[in-house]
């Protein structure tokens, strides 16, 4: 009886070890993930150029970058213009109806997929939407940010896709040494201005 019980324990222990080894050697499941940033330059009082950088933060390639869109919904208030593409990618504007907004679908051509851990810039467009409006909620779908976006591993709808929100690119902050030089320049300007003023009578 004791021998049978010991055999069962040994068998269970061996099964647990085998399962642990199988888990350790099995490849991890591929994970699709992305992030992106957007920055703007004012072209005129009513027009801005936007630049996007896409980051592949997962373990799969990315082949579609669909900005301001989720399935069935486009979020920009006005149609974009002057769209440019990174090398090997091409863009189309999407727009469902008068009750829907606008979006841009960028799709990679053969050999141009974005690899895991890589970033890609060169996605640009012009818009009459101000940066404040672009970073706000869609007028067509209140409560949803305009910059809500989807990516796919390959062509559009080639997989379940991943949704995320594009963030504003961080603004550059002057280094302390640059600030010190600016301060010295301002002091020199004030000192030079004071020297040029005529002296007051004693």
Question: What would you note in describing this structure?
Answer:
This protein is of the alpha+beta class. The protein has a domain of 133 residues: Immunoglobulin-like, CATH 2.60.40. It is 24% helix and 32% strand. The protein has 3 helices and 12 strands. The strands form 3 sheets. It has a 5-stranded mixed beta sheet with strand order 6-9-2-1-12, with no helix packed on it. A 5-stranded antiparallel beta sheet has the order 7-8-3-10-11, with no helix packed on it. Strand 4 and strand 5 form a beta hairpin. The protein is globular, with a radius of gyration of 28 Å. The termini are far apart.
Query: What's the CATH class label of the domain at 36-168?
Result: Mainly Beta
Instruction: Tell me the major beta sheet.
Output: 5 strands, mixed
- Mean pLDDT, to the nearest integer, reads 83
| Oligomer description | single chain
Order of helices and strands: HEEEEEEEEEHEEEH
CATH architecture of the domain at 36-168: Sandwich
Number of helices: 3
Residue share in helix: 10-25%
Strand arrangement in the largest pleated sheet:
6-9-2-1-12
Low-confidence stretches are: 10-27
Structural class: alpha+beta
Query: Approximately what portion of the residues adopt beta-strand conformation?
Result: 25-35%
Furnish the topology, listing elements before pairings.
Elements: H1 2-25, E1 34-44, E2 47-56, E3 64-67, E4 69-70, E5 73-74, E6 81-84, E7 89-94, E8 103-108, E9 119-127, H2 131-134, E10 148-152, E11 162-165, E12 167-168, H3 176-196
Parallel strand pairs: 1-12
Antiparallel strand pairs: 1-2, 2-9, 3-8, 3-10, 4-5, 6-9, 7-8, 10-11
């Amino acid at each position: 009886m004791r021998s049978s019980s010991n055999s069962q324990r040994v068998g269970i222990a061996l099964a647990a070890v085998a399962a642990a080894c199988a888990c350790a050697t099995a490849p991890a499941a591929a994970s699709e993930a992305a992030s992106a940033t957007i920055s703007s330059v004012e072209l005129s009082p009513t027009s801005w150029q936007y630049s996007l950088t896409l980051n592949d933060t997962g373990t799969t390639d990315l082949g579609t970058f669909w900005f301001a869109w989720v399935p069935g919904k486009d979020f920009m208030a006005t149609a974009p213009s002057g769209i440019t593409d990174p090398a090997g990618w091409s863009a189309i504007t999407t727009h469902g109806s008068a009750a829907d907004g606008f979006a841009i679908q960028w799709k990679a051509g053969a050999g141009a997929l974005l690899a895991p851990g890589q970033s890609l810039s060169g996605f640009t467009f012009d818009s009459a939407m101000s940066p404040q409006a672009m970073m706000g909620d869609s007028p067509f779908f209140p409560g949803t940010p305009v910059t809500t976006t989807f990516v796919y591993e390959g062509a559009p709808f080639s997989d379940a896709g991943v949704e995320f929100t594009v963030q504003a690119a961080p603004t550059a902050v002057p280094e302390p040494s640059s600030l010190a030089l600016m301060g010295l320049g301002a002091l020199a300007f004030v000192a030079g201005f004071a020297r040029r003023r005529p002296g007051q009578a004693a």
